[in-house]
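Researcher: I'm preparing a figure for a lab meeting and need a structural model of a single chain. I don't have an experimental structure, so a prediction will have to do for now. The sequence is pasted below. Please return the structure as tokens so I can convert it later.
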Amino acid sequence: MKRLELSVKSFDPAMWVIILYLTLFFVLFKSASQIMGAILFGWYLSMIISVPTGFLSRFIKYKLALLISSIGMFVLIAFAIYSIFPVLIEEGKRFFPVVGSTASDINVETFFNGDNIDPRFTEWVNSLIGDIGRNISELGASILNTVIQHIPAVSTSAILFIITASYFATLMPVLRTNLWRFFPKSTRQKSMRFVKECYKDIEHYIRGQVILALIVGVMVGIGTSLSGIPYSLFLGFLSGIFDFIPFLGPTLVSIPGMLLGFLYGGIEGLIKILIVFLFANQFESWVLQPRIQGTRMKVNWFAILLAILIAGSIFGLPGVLIGIPFLAFFKRFWVEYVQEGLEKM
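Model: Understood. Here is the structure written out token by token.
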């Protein structure tokens, strides 16, 4: 019993308080995932809105800077919903059926120009390519139909997200001022530093990832357009969205891209598309990421992917939003609280 008490006392009392808050959060998230997901997405947007707000606040009052930034974000999203998204949806309606039919029509035997290749092998490869193309086509069409059905709800949600994001941005200074109230007095300074550093990690990552996704999407869109491949706008959009999924995302988008390259340009078109995706991927990995993300939240790509998949499987689509924040939290929490406590035992 004494050994158990000693073990408990080895850990910072704030650690148990943080675990309690985390448990309450997950209970709320599980019981009201849609509402919590909307709030969390609003929080994500608030981090993006805080970038122009911080810049403008150097010249004008913070509240006015926040108002201008929020209106600007609202105009940008409204423009995307009513001008860009319809074009993307029309391209998507044509894109996925073409991918499926292209994969089904590919015959591997033509690549070998009559060489003596085992027919069972070519049949297996043809079947594999056809299945991949068909699955991508069906999944894409299903997602697209879901999006089309929920466009009115998306438009309303976008307005709510902007309002939530603006409220979060307004609330953050108040929360920072009253942060001390949530932790034990004995280690309050350490707890406040922990929360602030965690928030900076998450904020830095999300801002950086949004910038990376925009750049990668533009690079792929321009690259596929210059290669003479249709649906370049839609491929660029998909590349930007899937860039939030490390390693797996760019690979998923490159498969339909290469199928389209082969359909419209043969082997030459396939090689061109492959070069576009390889260049975008390598340029992001070796040039953009070190400059934009730096080393502040240096986490293995597999850990990020695993966190997204686990959170998504437990909490559904809204859970995908908490995968990376939770990973950033857990990494710092383990080092500053768990590991420190274990060393005292």
